[in-house]
Amino acid sequence: MLSVLVFRHSPTEGPGYFTTFLDRHGIPWKLVRIDAGDAVPENLNGVSGVCLMGGPMSVNDDLPWIPSVLALIRQAVASDVPLIGHCLGAQLMVKALGGSVGPNPVKEIGWGDVRITDADAARPWLGDATQPMPAFHWHGETFSLPPGSTRILESAFCANQAYVLNDRHIGLQCHVEMTPELVASWCENGAAEIAAASDSPGVQSATAIQADLSARTDRLHQLADKIYSRWIQGLRK
Question: What's the confidence (pLDDT) of residue 130?
Fold first, then answer.
C-alpha cells in the first residue's frame, strides 16, 4: 500500500495518536520533518494521503517552506489525494484553497466541547452524534471556510472548528491527535503562553488541562477514531 505523508512543523507537535491509528490499521506512513529541514516533496507519486500537523507559526509568516506546502495541498485536491489538517494544518489547507487566516476573537487553550453544525455533512465523519464532544484546543488564529467546503464543527470560542471538502478532505482547528504525553509536553513548553493569555475566557491553567488526563484523552480518541476511520476510506491504494 502507498504511504501517508505526515508533515511535522515543530518538534513538539508530532503526529501523536494519528500515527498510532495508522499503525493499528496497517497503513504505512512517512514523516516529513519540516522543523528539521526535510524537503517538501514536489509531487505525490507513491502517496496515499497527506496529513498536516500543527505548529506555533502562522500560515501568514514569511517562511521558505510554506509556498511549497501550499502547492502540494492544491495538487492533492486536484488529484483526489485525501488531506487531513490539524490546527496549523487545517489553516494551511485554507490558505492554499483560497480562504483566509487571521486572529481568533480569543485565544483558546485547553479542553472544550465541539458541536456539530451540519448534521448531514458531519454524518459520514461523526455518525449520528447529537451531543457536544470533548476536544483539545491550542490556537490564537482562526480561518474562513475554503470555497466549496462545509463547516461541521464549532466551539464556544471559535466558530470554525472543522470543515469538510469533497467528502474526502477534512480540516480541524481542534486537536484530536493528543496523547497524555503530548498534552504534558505542551503544557511544559507552553507555560509562558498560558500565563500571558490567562485572562482569556478560552484559556485554562496547566493544572486544569492535565486533570483526569488519561480518561480525557481516551474520550478524545473516540472522536479521533470516527474521523480517522472515515478519512482512511479515501486513501489511494
Answer: 82
Packed helices 119-126 and 213-232: angle between N→C axes, nearest 10 degrees: 100
Arithmetic mean of pLDDT over the chain: 97
Query: What gap in Å lies between CA 229 and CA 237, rounded to an integer?
Result: 16
- Cell numbers linked to 192: 509562558
Superfamily of domain 3-232: Class I glutamine amidotransferase (GATase) domain (3.40.50.880)
Instruction: Work out whether strand 47-52 and strand 29-33 pair parallel, antiparallel, or are unpaired.
Output: unpaired
Q: What gap in Å lies between CA 29 and CA 4, rounded to an integer?
A: 4
Side chain identity at 91, as an amino acid letter? Answer: Q
Classify residue 124 as left (phi > 0), alpha (psi -120 to 50) or beta.
alpha
pLDDT digits 0-9 by tens, 113-153: 999 999 999 999 999 988 999 999 999 999 999 999 999 99
Between CA 97 and CA 108 the distance in angstroms is 24
Residue linked to cell 490539524: 86
This prediction has a pTM of: 0.97
pLDDT tens per residue, range 175-198: 999 999 999 999 999 999 999 999
Domain ranges across the chain: 3-232
